[in-house]
Amino acid sequence: MIRSTFLRSAAVLTLLVSSFSSAEAQGRVFVNNDEWTLDQSGISQAGAGNVTQFTRNLASWLTGGTSGSVLIASGNFGFPTSAIGNDLSTGGYTFSTTNNNSGASLAVFTGYSAVFVDASTIAASSNAQLQADLQSYVLGGGSVFVNLGTGVMSSANEAAAFNTFLGHFGIQAAASYNGIGGVHNTSTWSSAAPYGAGLFGGVSQLYSNNGNSLSLGGPNGAGYTAQIFGDGLYAASARASVVPEPSTVTLLVVGLAAVGLAARRRRA
């Protein structure tokens, strides 16, 4: 009886550890409806302190709170390498840049903790492959930040360029630009679970100007939990926390207690 209980408990413990490890191994996705937030206009409108804090929050959230390396795979002004690079490097992160589409592939992505992309990353002939690469990268443990609303292509094409990838993680981008511009109060977003505190803590406002609104949608084949901020201005998605069923926890506790009791009796 004791041996049977021990084996069952050990099996449950193994499954729990495996589940937690699987969840932790998968990456995260963050989407901005518009590219102006981190550029010089965003800095002057919302304040350098807010943009710096947001950039560091984002890097921390994407990498799971650890220092890591970031690839900015874009030639668009929405990812100003001087400002972002300074915020990242002083926050303990390393970064590299590429605006060459051949440098935006799964083979390249896997060398980084997180990748920043936008429509300028895309060559029309390789769009399907890029979306597949981004999906594989996230499922393999990397994290992705997508800037939309760039105007590099039509609004509908820009949404389509990322919606297959985003839909796998429960997010969709609108096909038309939203006409929303200005400074947005983000001070209450930090209290919005599950991701608000990590992304918007210490950030009181951010700027955007006419992007692709975001919503929950898509097949969400990855089984992620997605969250929308600011009526579609930002979206975040990550693997749902693995919470064992109460009956599973009870079985584990009872089993381990029985094993411990048996060991004490043998010593006695």
Overview features:
268 residues; alpha/beta; two-stranded antiparallel ribbon; 43% helix; Ice-binding_C; Ice-binding protein C-terminal domain-containing protein; signal
Note down, in words, how this protein is organized.
- The protein has 268 residues and is of the alpha/beta class.
- It has one domain (28-238).
- 43% of the residues lie in helices and 21% in strands.
- The protein has nine helices and eleven strands.
- It has helices at 2-25, 40-46, 48-63, 81-90, 106-109, 127-139, 155-167, 196-200, 246-267; strands at 29-32, 69-73, 94-97, 114-118, 143-147, 171-177, 181-185, 205-209, 212-216, 224-229, 234-239.
- The strands form three sheets. The chain has a seven-stranded mixed β-sheet with strand order 3-2-4-5-1-11-10, with helices on both faces. A two-stranded antiparallel ribbon has the order 6-9.
- The longest helix has 24 residues, at 2-25.
- The chain starts with a helix and ends with a helix.
- The relative contact order is 0.19.
Task: Annotate the secondary structure layout.
Elements: H1 2-25, E1 29-32, H2 40-46, H3 48-63, E2 69-73, H4 81-90, E3 94-97, H5 106-109, E4 114-118, H6 127-139, E5 143-147, H7 155-167, E6 171-177, E7 181-185, H8 196-200, E8 205-209, E9 212-216, E10 224-229, E11 234-239, H9 246-267
Parallel strand pairs: 1-5, 2-3, 2-4, 4-5
Antiparallel strand pairs: 1-11, 6-9, 7-8, 10-11
Helix pairs in contact: 1-9, 2-3, 6-7
For the record, the count of structural domains works out to: 1
Distance between the termini: 19 Å
Strand order of the largest sheet: 3-2-4-5-1-11-10
**Continuous helix count:** 9
Strand content: 15-25%
How are helices and strands ordered from N to C?
HEHHEHEHEHEHEEHEEEEH
Could you tell me the number of beta strands? 11
What does the overall shape look like? Answer: globular
Helix content: 40-55%
Q: Which consecutive residue ranges, at least 5 long each, have pLDDT under 50? A: 9-24, 242-256
Q: Kindly provide the radius of gyration, computed on alpha-carbon positions and rounded to a whole number of angstroms.
A: 22 Å
Largest sheet: 7 strands, mixed
Structural class: alpha/beta
Mean pLDDT comes to: 84
Organism: Gemmatimonas aurantiaca (strain DSM 14586 / JCM 11422 / NBRC 100505 / T-27)
Keywords: Signal
Pfam family, one: PEP-CTERM
Signal peptide: 1-25
